[in-house]
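A common beginner's mistake is to predict each chain separately and then try to dock the pieces by hand. The better habit, illustrated here, is to supply every component at once so that their relative placement is modeled jointly.
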Amino acid sequence: MKEVLASEIKQIVQELFGSKAKIVLTRPESKFGDFSTNVAMQLGRAPAENAAKIIEKLKRLDEVAEATIAGPGFINITLTDATLQSVISEVLDKKEAYGSNKIYDGKTIVAEYSDPNPFKVLHAGHLYTTLTGDVIANLLETAGANVKLVNFGGDVGLHVGTTMWAIIQELGGEHPEKLADIKTENRMQWVSEQYVKGTKAFEGNEAAKDEIRDINKRVYALHDTNDHESPFAQIYWTCRQWSYDGFNELYRSLRVAPFDKYYPESETTELGVETVQEGLKRGVFENSDGAVVLKGESAGLHTRVFITSEGLPTYETKDLGLALTKWQDYRFDLSIMITGNDIVEYMKVVQLALKSFQPEICERSKHITHGMLKLAGGIKMSSRKGNALLASDVLESAEKASKAHSNNDQQGTVLAAVKYAFLKQRIGGDIIYDPEESVSIAGNSGPYLQYAHARAMSILLKKPTPQVDYKLDVSERQLVRKISELPEVVEAAVNELMPHLVCTYLYELAQEFNSFYEANRVIGEPREDMRLTLINAYVTVLKNGLKLLGISAPDHM
RNA sequence: GUACCCGUAGCUCAGCUGGAUAGAGCGUUGGCUUGCGGAGCCAAAGGUCGUAGGUUCGAAUCCUGUCGGGUACACCA
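With all components supplied together, the output reads:
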């Protein structure tokens, strides 16, 4: 609808003024009309005269009911009811009213997010990126892409040495058989606790520090020799698997799409190291104090270590290996990585290194970064587990808050609350998460949208829904106008990879419906058939929108 | 110190390809139920868009300075 109108205006402007000005159509307040454009003001002097000429032609278009000039030279356009109304049947026929603009049709896109580390706790940030990544993947699929979901995590590195050290302490030596004593449901938790214990020892105890460093080397060595037999290796592989089991369990409970592939760091290290060594010969990297570094200063960046003076690869090298591995595996058109914004500068250095080997990867990469997740009111964190906010802290706080408003699908409501609370905010800044607000049915929340859906469904479930085509009345028109915005909203969300645009829209849509609902009866009214059709379209759009966000749309609550 | 990000209503946030009277939720105050789910709706009060300049017919939006907050800057990830 929008595109058609835009191209028609473009043609008019070209005929009248010979200008190839880009036509930007916006949605003004409803009192001004359905669309608004400022082209007349872009055409130089006398915007009013320009506008008048354009309006004259605009009025002759079939879709346009009214066109007026307003303010400093805006052209406000009101569509005919017939045109506007066509979205109802479009929505109902397609059942997937996401618009037809498949900008990624046939493209392969690799989306990397979540990225939890085995042998470590899941932080609130992991929760955030998991949920956001899932929605971004949905958006890309909507736009026609073949999306591959991948997950990167550190199964080697100092944190692993730290946890392994504490595990061995806990087991009283390298006794893998003792792991059997730990109950299945406690495994993930237990490993996380060992990490915290090890970290404390590393920070406060020189002897432990040396032992941890030594164990760290043994973990790398175990991969080099493909050791699955030694007691040490058995402990390692068992606990690593426990971590992955725990991650998958979390993803299941969050009802997000499963990952296509895990890339453990141990599997990207070799290629990373080879690449760094080749780069060292070519002068991309240099030796400095026994370490291999990339000096980024000439590019406005900073120096980072790729191989330590102990000869161990750092995260930088593994990330380099990861990028190359993803490229080998998928030959993607686009690679998206979602991480915290504390590593933007770091990532630039890795990209700088990458540029010397596979520049096309850099050209096709997009790094999306988000802020920190905090609990509103500075609610205390699980200090015994370290000083970071954990994924479980967030989920537990939401569950606790939701108990005040219990209903049928408690878990579904909690998920809706958390997901929506995260997603409604533009990606990038810090997020202050307020559990109470998120589960509240009042206000801009996931449960509000679910309720808005259930409420409308309760009407539809009482009557069979015909599909009719009456003339719209004033309040019906308001609702149809909002429904008609869906394709352009989804398009914008896809183009900019901003899920919050969908949230904002759905909230406005639900408000529009609730407002309509309050003022108009449906069942038993002369306009019953028309209104049932309209509500059916509304419910379809709301449900599809929520699905895009990974949020369920229950018929009852 | 250098670089990047962020400063919009009491609080949490939209708005940022420059455009009409800067919007929403929460909170506050006041209304609406012989009604399809009132877990709703309607309304009011509340803002020098951190600040000072610049560009422009027009700036919350672009540019520069400045203040405040956050993050990153060599062997952690």
